[in-house]
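Troubleshooting: if your tokenizer reports a length mismatch, compare your output against this known-good record of 267 residues.
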Amino acid sequence: FPPQEPLYSEASTSRLYQSQGRQGPPQHSNHHSHYPQQQQQQQQNVLDWRRHIPSPDFSDPNFGDTVVRVGPEHTALYVHRGVVALWSPAFSELMNYAPVDLPDEDPATFRTLLFLLYPPCSESHINLQNCGAVLSLADRFNCRPVCICCENFLLRMPMSMEICLLADTFAEVMPRLRPVALSWLVAQPDPSVLPDFKRISVGMLADYAERRRLFDAASHVKSIASHEDSIMAYNRSMKQQYNPQRLKLFGTHNCEVDVSAYWNNDS
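Known-good structure output:
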């Protein structure tokens, strides 16, 4: 029997389409090629879910079930007792009273703190101007999640003397920021000329001095190692230039013994 054409060969498939009056197989868009982009877009939408949630309006009396009067003018902020009480024991005890009076607190700072307690818990309400006040308020009310939120914000910012002072002041509630600030201070040529350098605490200055000493020692060892490497490279080049075989060609047999003994010396 003559060899038969494969059932699903390109030629047989082409004749099948011609018999049906078609030019070829239907051209479908390859939607699978866009799948990674669609998946990435879906992941981005999931990550940005917070931007779809509107910010709470604490000035609306219908928003919460209790009122917090903040500042000397008793600015009313309406919150949910159960939501605020979850964040710290101090808030949990404070929410047992209604209304809650906080005459010594700043209304704008307390409002920023509430924005961090309520979804979407966005850090967009934090900046370098109010971060210190928010940290102080969160520290007084033992609100650890807000301190972590402020620390994450500061870690993403370019290091400066202002951030170093915040890392020094709130070292207990921001333990990750202090080593970064110390490393930045050590890397500065002369940090004493920086503004507000004298405001650093004695403890941080002691840690800075210790790190600076280790940094200078490491730099000295590195310079010595680099100098020794340059000397070894020079010796290797000299050994290649004045080797005994080359000296032997010129008939300097006495020098051959001296140079050979010198180059074979490990010291």
